[in-house]
Design brief:
- The chain has 1 helix and 23 strands.
- It has one helix spanning 2-23, and strands at 28-35, 39-41, 45-54, 63-70, 80-87, 95-103, 111-119, 134-142, 151-158, 162-164, 168-177, 183-193, 204-214, 218-228, 236-244, 259-267, 280-284, 293-299, 307-312, 323-325, 330-334, 341-349, 352-360.
- The strands form 6 sheets. A 5-stranded mixed β-sheet has the order 2-8-7-4-5, with no helix packed on it. Strands 10-16-15-12-13 form a 5-stranded mixed β-sheet, with no helix packed on it. It has a 4-stranded antiparallel β-sheet with strand order 20-19-22-23, with no helix packed on it.
Length: 361
Amino acid sequence: MKKVLSCALWVLLCWLPYRVQAQVKPDLVIVAPFNIPSNVLSGGIYQMSAVIKNQGTNGSQFNCIGYYLSADNVWDATDAYMGASCQALLFPGQSGTCSVMGTIPPLTATGNYYLLLVADPLNAELELDETNNVVSFSLAVTKGNSALPDLELWRPSISFDAVPAGGSTGAFTFIFNRGPGAVGGYELGFYLSADTVFSAGNDVFLGLVTGGGLVLNNGTIHSAPVLTVPGSTVPGNYYLLLVADPRNAVAESNENNNSRALALRVTGAITAVTPSAATEMSVYPNPVALGGRLGVYLNGAENGKPLQLAFYDALGREVSLSKSIATGRQVAFDTPDLPAGVYWLRVVGDNATATRRLVIE
């Protein structure tokens, strides 16, 4: 009996080191935060990143994430490799971000795919669990032109975010070519806008700088130190738009990422020049229906001298021909053929100025 127990104890003591050794292993998993595109162009280059974490019981030396394009959510040898990124030694509980600039294969057909992120894609680490190394994301691919550039604006800044009408500010930005195609000459425009969306027909041009010679993943700095707001601009809240390739002279793989908007407040107030002049203007109805009848009355002593009444858009540009009006008199007319929006009625003449806001619905 003692011999049997001795043998059993010997087997147990011999087996325990192997059992302990088997459980002391790393376990690599991929966790948030994720920076993954959901819509891409074939041939396009995109920044991607995720976090690799060692949730095992031993340190790990080979802490890499591989990025693959796949027709399904199962990682295998048919998937297209797009790049890999690694972290240094990770002890249990430690993590780090792995990011790449991944290229969507140029010959990829339009359709729905999966982006697979694989921890330890070379199987360099013996892990506690080898089945939890893959995460997948849905990815829509549109046929693109791999030879096209893609201009982006990074970290734009404004010198002064509040200036009076007629005053000046400045702007600074970094322009970057993310696309695989090189761009020769390009333009960078600066515009005053009532909103954050660039519209060449509505926004006020303030300035232009030029550059050239940007290849893949190459960029440069541009600045416009003096951008003058038109003196006729109505005080209020606006945006300074920085727009790469504003005239669409450069064919790009992505035409929707060329502009950035910075808040800009135009200060000051419009007042009458002289207290005795026509300083009170009544406008009714306000709002007025599109094409509707509008009445305007100037409160002041009649002096027999006509004043000019004009329509201006939200950026202070005259959008309708002037009409004559006299103090102490009322004038009625149909609203000009203007789209619905916010406008300003301004009367000027003989040392008198008055302005009223008008909404056309």
